[in-house]
Structure formats: C-alpha cells, structure tokens
Description:
The chain is mostly beta strands. The chain has one domain (about 20-140): Immunoglobulins (Immunoglobulin-like).
Amino acid sequence: xxxxxxxxxxxxxxxxxxxxxxxxxxxxxxxxxxxxxxxxxxxxxxxxxxxxxxxxxxxxxxxxxxxxxxxxxxxxxxxxxxxxxxxxxxxxxxxxxxxxxxxxxxxxxxxxxxxxxxxxxxxxxxxxxxxxxxxxxxxxxx
Length: 142
C-alpha cells in the first residue's frame, strides 16, 4: 500500500510539473488569422481535392512543440457544431489533424456539396484562448 501511495505521488508530481493531465490553452496573437488559399468558396472541384491552408501573423509548429505564437491546422469537414474550445480536439473523419505542421492536404470527398473550415490548435490540439478559426466555405465535388 505504501509503495502504491509513493508511486501515485510521483505520477501526480510529474503530471503537475509537465501539465500532462491539464488542458493547457495557449494565447494566439491578436491579429492572427487562418484562411483557405484554395479551393475558393463556391468552387466546383473533382476528388481528390487539394486544400491549401493559409495563416497570417502566427507560425506553424508540429503538435507537441510548445512555442508561443504557433499552432497547427485542423480541418473541419461538414461539421455543423464546433468542437469544444477548451479541450483537445478529437480526431475523426470530420475533424482532421495536421499535427505534423502540414499546410496542405489531398481530400477524398464524395460527390456533392461540402463545407470546410480551419481551426488552429496548440501543441496539445486545443484551440487557442482566442480561437483562430476561418470562415466556413462551401465546395461542390463533381
């Protein structure tokens, strides 16, 4: 029992110092913005769709790298409700993580109308204190 108590104290001490169990939000520069370079809103495209991400007044850093004024892209596909802004974003088919610092992707999308939106996440995939989020665009896949 004593060994278990010591181990738990060590785990919580390490977690407290590293923030491993805390949801850490980062502050984005006031003038930071994220946007689509391509495709344009209203574009008619073929699949796979090349999507290029734009970012102003902020840097891109891979997930896990905690540098002030940086983050990495998350792409919201046909998502009607935004993810919680105070927790790590769960990866899914509709919420894609680009934690390697990618600034573009090729998307396989079914024919039809789709919405796309970009949301920056910090080193832990958590949106910044002032969320850096793009306008939602609509594209049509032939």
